[in-house]
Amino acid sequence: MNDSSAYVPPKVWKWEKESGGHFASINRPIAGPTHDKELPIGKHPLQLYSLATPNGVKVTVMLEELLARGIAGAEYDAWLIDIGEGDQFGSGFVEANPNSKIPALTDHSTETPTRVFESGAILLYLAEKFDAFLPSDHSRRTECLSWLFWQMGSAPYLGGGFGHFYAYAPSHIEYCINRFAMEVKRQLDVLDRHLADNQFMCGDEYTIADMAIWPWYGALILNRVYEAAEFLDAGSYKHVGRWTQEIEGRDTVQRGRMVNKMRGPLEEQLRERHDAGDFDTMTQDKLEAAE
Ligand SMILES: N[C@@H](CCC(=O)N[C@@H](CS)C(=O)NCC(=O)O)C(=O)O
Hints:
Elements: E1 46-50, H1 54-68, E2 76-80, H2 91-96, E3 104-107, E4 114-117, H3 119-130, H4 138-168, H5 174-197, H6 208-221, H7 238-248, H8 251-258, H9 278-281, H10 284-290
Parallel strand pairs: 1-2
Antiparallel strand pairs: 1-3, 3-4
Helix pairs in contact: 1-3, 1-6, 1-8, 4-5, 4-6, 5-7, 6-7
The protein binds glutathione.
């Protein structure tokens, strides 16, 4: 760049001030806990510590799908981790996920508790544990995992790249928005071309690849993230739109979206989930009415 007013990086970067963007107060250049706080443990083998962001929703949808299939071992307690309040930096959470990001899962049904972090790893762990939503045929399984890992590698360009500069940065920087809008539109086109010939990401089978991709790219189509559907002309990706609506119509998906939700209509917020009946009795509207 030859703009003389442009920022010139120092020889060694130092953490001197917050960046000023949304979430600036929780961003730090160091890992590890900031305070002591044990994680609660409920009555079920699976303990989920999360928040209903797209990464969190992947896992709650998977758990609700497993339960809807009659897999009782997938019963779970879902505890709320408020990342705006820094819960992800509590000592117990850092033990569950050294990367300090939701979602984190601990399975207490194993000889010693098994921790799983990274949403893609959690989906794969649950799919393997319960032999569900992952094709058993090797080549179909490989296709499914290719799309699962595609999502894990691609969504940071959508969230940390496009979403950050379009919706959260303190000012709109044309270069950054152009760069990441271009990439996100390319990703949507990848999905659109694939979904033109496939009902789901892996042919006619709904799998963990759909569960990973839908909460991000479906949310973009439905204008639930970054209010960017118009800007990205999301409606033009017809096959992604058809697939988005088909998955949106699943009851399991609607339940999964409610778990650990802290925003939106109170009747859609089930901030903690400990029992299937909680959807009827413990939503935030009912809790507040009972106060
Ligand atoms: N690659 C991770 C990303 C998880 C992630 O970025 N989680 C965000 C919320 S969507 C978070 O916990 N942010 C808190 C922070 O960065 O301090 C995964 O898929 O699990």
